[in-house]
Amino acid sequence: MDLVNEILEREQQKADKYKPITVEKHLDVEFDIGTLVAFDTNDLDSKLMKSEKDRDSYLESLTRDNTQLLLNKIWELSTERIDEAIVVRLPQPTTVMPRAKPVPKPKPLTKWQEFAKAKGITKTKKSKLEWDEQLQKWVPLYGFKKAAAEKEKNWLIPVPQNLDPMTDMYEKKASEKSEKVAKNELQRLKNIARARKVKIPRVGIPITSDKASSTQLATATSVAKASTASLGKFQDKLPKEKDARGKGVHELIPGKERKRKLPVPTPAAEKENNLSIIDRILKKRPKIDMEKAVSKHIHEEQVQRSEEKRSMKPMKGKPKGKGNATNFSAKKPKGGRGQRNPNKKNPGRKRR
Amino acid sequence: MKILSEDRTRLLFEKLTKYIGVNVKLLIDRPDGTYCFREKKDRVYYISERLLQLAHTVKPDHLISAGTCFGKFTKTNKFRLHITALTYIAPYAPYKLWVKPSSEQQFLYGHHVIKSGLGRITENTPKNQGVVILTMSDIPIGFGVTSRSTTDCRHADPLATIAFHQADIGEYIRSEDTLV
Question: What does this gene product do (chain A) (predicted)?
Answer without folding.
Answer: Involved in ribosomal large subunit assembly.
